[in-house]
Amino acid sequence: MFALIFFSVITFLLLIVYLLVYLNTKQFKLNINQLGHYKYCLVLGAGLEKDGKPSDILMDRVSTGVCLFNNNQVDLLIMSGTRRRGYDEPGAMQAAAIAQGVPDSAILLDPQGISTLDSCVNFKQKFAHESLVIITQPFHLPRSILLARKLGLDAYGTAAGIYHFSWYKRAFWYIREFFALPYNFIKLALYSH
């Protein structure tokens, strides 16, 4: 009984935290029609399939970035993800964007984008005074915008929405996001500017 009450309280608190993050970042979330022009578009990694190609969720992000590029809303796509032996997320993202017609000269790679926070820190280290638009799914966008803005970046976000996912995939991602928030707040607190 105690475990159930404890779990319920934790879940309720996480829900409140997520809602606060959502409300504090809502003004910085723009749909494609609201976006102005940005030099940089940060496309966040989301995993590869066993064959080394982008997962469906990652392809959704890359394709949304390509759409912004084709609409002349962004000049450069930054593909941020993990690169290690036998695993090259930014390289797979780059290949997918090139296959959709983006020139190689319009793509920058961030192979140290191990997490959302790392991707934002890496951007800050190279382009601290530049505005950017972040591409990720709706469940992940509030945290991404919050982390970037807490780092002092002039960050906006737009949700990837070209692909349609099953309700159980979306439910899994939202539940995962609830538990990722406290972890990311701890990482942000430990990050030394």
TrEMBL record:
TM ranges: 6-23
The answer, when asked if RNA-binding is one of the entry's keywords, is no
Q: Name one GO cellular component term.
A: plasma membrane
Q: Matching Pfam families, A to Z?
A: DUF218
Instruction: Cite the InterPro entries for this sequence.
Output: Cell_Envelope_Assoc, DUF218
Taking the record's annotation, the residue ranges forming a coiled coil are none
The record places domain DUF218 at 40-178
Question: Keywords of this protein's UniProt record, alphabetized?
Answer: Membrane, Transmembrane, Transmembrane helix
Query: Which superkingdom?
Result: Bacteria
Protein name as catalogued: SanA protein
| Organism of this sequence | Pelolinea submarina
